[in-house]
Amino acid sequence: RNMNKNHRVPSSRSLSAVEVKSKFGAEFRRFSLDRSKPGRFDEFYGLLQHVHRIPNVELLVAYADVHGDLLPINNDDNYLKAVKSANPLLRLFLQRKEEADYTTFGTDSLTRKKNTVLSAVLLRPDPNKKKPPVIISLPKDFRPVSSIIDVDILPETHRRVRLYKHGQEKPLGFYIRDGSSVRVTPQGLEKVPGIFISRLVPGGLAESTGLLAVNDEVLEVNGIEVVGKSLDQVTDMMIANSHNLIITVKPANQRNNVVRGGGVGGGAASGSSSDNGASYHGYLPHGAAAIAGPTHIIQNFSVGELESDEDDEDVVIEMGGEAETIRRTPSNYSMPSLPRYEPHLNLRTATAANSGSAFSINANGNLRGSGGSSGSLTNTNASSTTPSPDRAKERRNLEEEGTVITL
Amino acid sequence: TMKRFRRHGTESQRDRLKQELFQFTKTVEHGFPHQPSALGYSSSLQLMAIGTRSGAIKLYGAPGVEFMGLHDENAAVTQVFFMPHQVELVTLLDDNSLHMWTLQSHKGLSELLEIGRFLLTGPPGYTDISVTRVTAVLTHSSGELLLLGTEGGHVFIVEVPGFRELEEMNISLDQITSCVPDDYIGRRNLEHVEALQENPVNSNQVAIGYGRGLMVIWDLDHRCAIRHIPATQQLESMWWTEDGSCILSSHNDGSYCCWTLRTGDEREEEEKSNVPYGHFPCKAINKIVQLPTAGGPPFLLFSGGMPRASYGDRHCITVIYSKTQVAFDFTSRIIDFFVTRDGPQHTVFGEPSALVVLVEEELVVIDLQTEGWPVIQTPYLVPLHSSAITCSHHVSAIPLKLWERIIAAGVVQNTQYSKKPWPITGGQNLAPDPPQRDLLLTGHEDGTVRFWDASGVCLYPLYKLSTAAVFSADADLNDNMSQGAEGEWPPFRKVGCFDPYSDDPRLGIQKIHLCKYSGYLTVAGTAGQILMLELNDEAAEQTVEAKIVDLLQGQEGFRWKGHTQLDVREEPVLFPPGFQPFTVVQCQPPAVVTALSLHSEWKLVAFGTSHGFGVYDYLQKNNVLVKCTLNPSDQLAMEGPLSRVKSIKKSLRQSFRRIRRSRVSLRKHHISNTNKIQEANARLEAEQAEMEMAPVQRKIEARSSDDSFTGLVRTLYFADTFLSDSSHNTPSLWAGTNGGTVFAYILYIPPVEHRADEALTAQPAKEIQLMHRAPVVGIVVLDGHGAPLPEPLETAHDLARSPDLLGSHHVLVISEEQFKVFTLPKLSSKMKLKLTAVDGSRVRRVGVAWFGSSRTEDYGESGLVFLTNQGDVHVLSLPHIKMQIRYPCIRREDVSGIASCVFTKQGQGFYLMSPSEFERFSLSTRYLVEPRCLVEAPLP
């Protein structure tokens, strides 16, 4: 979330030169860089092509960081980071872009076999380290995909999930239906109509986060209760909020509820933690509080939060000029824009100790049933996101029953 | 919150102002009641009553005199009777309940009120439901008794208005059978009571007709049968002639008999049995009426009786007078009929003047006193749906000159109608004259546009424009066949105008725009045709120019799979006085026109389809602009979805036709009712089971630019505003699409002296892509005072409406989900109001209206009126787009009602509550059009 962190310079290491050892195929090149004036990434890229004498080859540049993790260099920021953190050697691994095996950055660390071709490429300073190889996608592709919020104020049986759509190609990917649930009222148990998640589209955002499941009851959409609203109304509300959808559900499976522990990030024992309200307090606009309206309930996200910046980014094109986003006239709230990234690779990645990442991520995986996760990062390359065809088919068989009537 | 700290005073002040400006009232229903099921008439009150299958009861008298009531039971009204010489009426519902209604005066106005209800229980011991199931009702001339004939064959007598059963007076089946010779009855049942009639000259005598055919004359005083008439055919109806000398009976086999009642004779001889359309088996004569005339033979009228095989599907009423016989052939099933009489009021013994026939889809009134029995044009109850309504357009405050010209054009069209005044004249219309002349234009499936006087309570037809003549049609033969040839038997004559079967759906009117100042009209249709018309007081023969506009603009790889375009006639066509077309702009592909706007000052018309939009200069007869909005990947838009809709519609139409042909008489539905209920229940259960098996799902997905029909043009708007810089206002065109895009063009229009020869240009200026991508349904430019820009030519006619060109203009973009205000010319987002994200409703219809304060004459403000898909109407303040009021208006399930809604400039609205009825409502405290009338009780 806060890219500024990337620019923090480790002051202890300001030696004047950085030794670079660059490997392309079987060949090595060695050269040095001025640590204080490393230049821009594109200059560096040109330099690499030059020293390897491969002027027209598109390259994927990666380096081994202090932990031995293979991290990409593809922009000024991570280039700077790589240079600053070189201690003292900067070990580079170059691959042809067209040949590059992207799974280097995206294989599920838990299932990945160690002796793949690419793991051989990885240099490990300490091969005895028990830590599994951590596979990290390109930093420029990191962005929040979903989060559990407001854990501190919601009943433990409820879960408030935020899905970040950010104009990406990946579909939200779920369906809702009418149903009924049993509520405890002062008059005793009562059967009341409710809205339920009826289906998750394989490979969709909703499914990939693992935070929503079939038969979860939808209680609120962006802070507004759905009680008394028709299926169509709730559908329209969700679609209208689709760029920044916050839905409060009562999970059908109550075994993976977030257990409230001592503060943010607590509850590691239960395998879950939360990107909860605390992380949002910083954005609370001055004077903003609960939105007016009878159906509003207490929540930690604010008006400004709901009115995500993207929502206002209607595009105005001046004919004969450049496209520009609409300037918002000074408003009573400000929220730093979330960096927008190009969609790229694949698969969900849970990672620990990702020093280069702008986001704090918890390491417990995000598959439902493996312990509810909080912040999950997902990539959007459809081809690799889709599970193997067989699995997908199997799933479809399971989930596409019934008549689907769409609007 | 901010609200909490706002000063209390301003809040309450605004609340008070809101009360002065806004109120929601449903005021009057225009058109023809949906599914009428019963007809009643009071000759003393000169009022007609119509009951419907949904339990409504509507009373009509002189034009403007109308009342409406609704039974709580929601059951069909099967019979309606006025109490003789009173202001009360009795209704019988499908659920066997009886209801007493009255017209009560309150502050000088009459109101229709239900004052009593009654369920016949019969004396103790009767347990069978059929015993008390009412099949015939007689309101006794004393005004104190109701005779109720039942399915079990008994006649119960009830005192009104209190509904007290007079057990001792009941006429039981046993009492009847005891006085009828055994040889008639044998072992057969007399069946239910089919008809009850009072002797017009002796109120103590009533005739009871049984289903089996037997008729018995009963003396109420002596409580005994006087005579019996042993007809052998199933009885359908009875009529006691006014001199009391004869009883006519009509029968199931298409025959009628006249029974002369000679005093002293115990057993009556059947004078003659007549099968008017005989030889071959005939259908039942459902009702028969005979009325005397002063100096000649009587009128005989009966419904039905047609030869079963050849004409069994006709809905006919035969009128026989002297040597003249006409079988009036109606457009739908006959519900009931009555005949009005001339002469002094409060007597029924006048000359028959008009035959009033209620059929399922319209009311037809036939003048019986004018040679040739012409039809009298109805001032109300007009079948709006004579061809299905496809769109409507409302124009407020029509200048007198235009109004008179439209009326004149309409008069020429209506020469076939009788000159006689409307024969139903009861009550007084006390409503003040409407403050202005309003026009409602309805577009229909058959390519007609009907002009209605919508100023007052009666929605009166003024003029009908047909666009079909512009195009070469394949089949115009049907009309010639409909009129009966000389010597045809039965002597049919088609009456009525209900004709929902359009032969070419491409003719359907989709959009209408009338400029009330210039008399220019543009209408656009289903096959991409846009007609420009001009009002001409004289008939004119002219060639209509056709101009093709290719909206695809070279987009390749598409094949239009929808309908073909209509071919414009190349030879000159003679157009009658009225709106005459001079140009047809034909869009290619010929997709349905989805947006239309006329600017009569600039002489431009803008039009849009699912493929793009264009601007046509109807002075130079040139295209000024063509823009393709089609998303290259949008195959669905290319295919022409209407081709599919059309085919469904076509098959529906065919099946309706089939049903219509095969429909048999639905009388005696009380017998089949249990079957119906069982059927309905089974259907309901099946539906429920289906629901449980496969619940309806809704996909949750963000809209994307790849969605289908994102290029469909939803709204077009001309505005003179600041689009290029903030010091020069220029003409501009705005277009909004289904995908949330707004295109703005600067139009260069030459000065008046060069307007005819200098070229017009349109230059793209701005484009907004709304991030939420919801369809743009409206665009309004607000002037420096925050008021919506005036209509074209409005300023020229009323200087008070000059827009403020000094302050900064804003543009309000209305999507289905949000309202957003942008500054001009920079298009910075200034304000917005989210609707869907907050309550899940979406904007369906929108309009700008002016609301005047009810307290002070000089205060008023503009507001944005809109209707959501949930059926609620809202008013937003302008320019601050703040919610003012919200009222539930239409059931959200009533999708066609919601789609049909139009708003007026004075904060009223119309929507189709059924295919044939407009509900009128008002959001304004100042502009209300509602019936205000008085009906006084007749003198004793």
UniProtKB/TrEMBL annotation, chain A:
<keyword id="KW-0132">Cell division</keyword>
<feature type="domain" description="PDZ">
    <location>
        <begin position="160"/>
        <end position="253"/>
    </location>
</feature>
<dbReference type="GO" id="GO:0051301">
    <property type="term" value="P:cell division"/>
</dbReference>
<dbReference type="GO" id="GO:0005634">
    <property type="term" value="C:nucleus"/>
</dbReference>
<dbReference type="Pfam" id="PF00564">
    <property type="entry name" value="PB1"/>
</dbReference>
<feature type="compositionally biased region" description="Basic and acidic residues">
    <location>
        <begin position="390"/>
        <end position="399"/>
    </location>
</feature>
<dbReference type="InterPro" id="IPR053793">
    <property type="entry name" value="PB1-like"/>
</dbReference>
<dbReference type="GO" id="GO:0060341">
    <property type="term" value="P:regulation of cellular localization"/>
</dbReference>
<keyword id="KW-0131">Cell cycle</keyword>
<dbReference type="Pfam" id="PF00595">
    <property type="entry name" value="PDZ"/>
</dbReference>
<feature type="domain" description="PB1">
    <location>
        <begin position="17"/>
        <end position="97"/>
    </location>
</feature>
<dbReference type="GO" id="GO:0007163">
    <property type="term" value="P:establishment or maintenance of cell polarity"/>
</dbReference>
<dbReference type="GO" id="GO:0005923">
    <property type="term" value="C:bicellular tight junction"/>
</dbReference>
<dbReference type="GO" id="GO:0005938">
    <property type="term" value="C:cell cortex"/>
</dbReference>
<feature type="compositionally biased region" description="Low complexity">
    <location>
        <begin position="375"/>
        <end position="389"/>
    </location>
</feature>
<feature type="region of interest" description="Disordered">
    <location>
        <begin position="370"/>
        <end position="407"/>
    </location>
</feature>
<dbReference type="InterPro" id="IPR051741">
    <property type="entry name" value="PAR6_homolog"/>
</dbReference>
<keyword id="KW-0963">Cytoplasm</keyword>
<dbReference type="GO" id="GO:0007098">
    <property type="term" value="P:centrosome cycle"/>
</dbReference>
<keyword id="KW-0796">Tight junction</keyword>
<comment type="similarity">
    <text>Belongs to the PAR6 family.</text>
</comment>
<protein>
    <submittedName>
        <fullName>Par-6 partitioning defective 6 homolog beta (C. elegans)</fullName>
    </submittedName>
</protein>
UniProtKB/TrEMBL annotation, chain B:
<dbReference type="GO" id="GO:0030864">
    <property type="term" value="C:cortical actin cytoskeleton"/>
</dbReference>
<dbReference type="InterPro" id="IPR000664">
    <property type="entry name" value="Lethal2_giant"/>
</dbReference>
<dbReference type="InterPro" id="IPR036322">
    <property type="entry name" value="WD40_repeat_dom_sf"/>
</dbReference>
<feature type="domain" description="Lethal giant larvae homologue 2">
    <location>
        <begin position="274"/>
        <end position="374"/>
    </location>
</feature>
<keyword id="KW-0597">Phosphoprotein</keyword>
<dbReference type="InterPro" id="IPR001680">
    <property type="entry name" value="WD40_rpt"/>
</dbReference>
<keyword id="KW-0677">Repeat</keyword>
<feature type="repeat" description="WD">
    <location>
        <begin position="435"/>
        <end position="453"/>
    </location>
</feature>
<dbReference type="GO" id="GO:0005886">
    <property type="term" value="C:plasma membrane"/>
</dbReference>
<keyword id="KW-0853">WD repeat</keyword>
<dbReference type="GO" id="GO:0006887">
    <property type="term" value="P:exocytosis"/>
</dbReference>
<dbReference type="InterPro" id="IPR013577">
    <property type="entry name" value="LLGL2"/>
</dbReference>
<dbReference type="GO" id="GO:0030866">
    <property type="term" value="P:cortical actin cytoskeleton organization"/>
</dbReference>
<protein>
    <recommendedName>
        <fullName>LLGL scribble cell polarity complex component 2</fullName>
    </recommendedName>
</protein>
<dbReference type="GO" id="GO:0051294">
    <property type="term" value="P:establishment of spindle orientation"/>
</dbReference>
<dbReference type="InterPro" id="IPR015943">
    <property type="entry name" value="WD40/YVTN_repeat-like_dom_sf"/>
</dbReference>
<dbReference type="GO" id="GO:0032878">
    <property type="term" value="P:regulation of establishment or maintenance of cell polarity"/>
</dbReference>
<comment type="similarity">
    <text>Belongs to the WD repeat L(2)GL family.</text>
</comment>
<dbReference type="GO" id="GO:0008593">
    <property type="term" value="P:regulation of Notch signaling pathway"/>
</dbReference>
<keyword id="KW-0268">Exocytosis</keyword>
<dbReference type="Pfam" id="PF08366">
    <property type="entry name" value="LLGL"/>
</dbReference>
<keyword id="KW-0131">Cell cycle</keyword>
